[in-house]
Specification:
With about 140 residues, the chain is of the alpha/beta class. It has one domain: 3-Layer(aba) Sandwich (Rossmann fold). It has six helices and five strands, in the order H-E-H-E-H-E-H-E-H-E-H. Strands 2-1-3-4-5 form a five-stranded parallel beta sheet, sandwiched between helices. Strand 4, helix 5 and strand 5 form a beta-alpha-beta unit. The longest helix is centred in the last third of the chain and has 18 residues.
């Protein structure tokens, strides 16, 4: 069901972290500017280093703090699983986190990292979109 009031909601700010530009671009291309008509548009913040991720989540970066975080678990030198754990330990009211894992068998690591969701490489755009849509709806429901 389409809700016109949702379309008028401020864009959701989505942080995408990977040291690999191709991974960041695959995530953004897979989701597009509006992955579902019931959601507001997405505004992306690309980060290639851990310090910039932390800066954005601390609210020290330009714009407001991200509403949703997507981290590449295969990034180096700081992997997304470790960053996810750090976010959950150190950021008050941390946004939901999705971690891109190296393989489906690595999904169990999300419980350690406290990420809300995982998607494995290679990125399946449909699986990514379904997972992110569910997380985004949770963000909107939480207000």
């Amino acid at each position: 069901m389409y809700d016109a009031s949702v379309s008028e909601h401020e864009a959701l700010r989505v942080l995408v972290y990977s040291d690999d530009r191709d991974v960041r671009q695959a995530v953004i291309a897979g989701l597009g500017t509006r992955p579902h008509p019931d959601l507001p548009s997405f505004e992306y913040v690309e980060c290639a280093t851990e310090p910039v991720v932390v800066q954005q989540l601390d609210g020290d970066g330009p714009g407001r703090r991200p509403d949703l975080v997507i981290l590449d678990g295969e990034a180096v030198p700081a992997g997304g699983l470790g960053i996810a754990r750090q976010i959950k330990d150190e950021i008050y009211q941390a946004p939901p986190v999705l971690v891109l894992t190296g393989r489906p068998q690595d999904a169990w690591l999300a419980s350690w990292s406290r990420a809300e969701a995982t998607v494995s490489h290679p990125i399946d755009p449909l699986e990514l979109a379904e997972t992110v849509i569910a997380l985004a709806r949770g963000v909107l429901a939480a207000g």
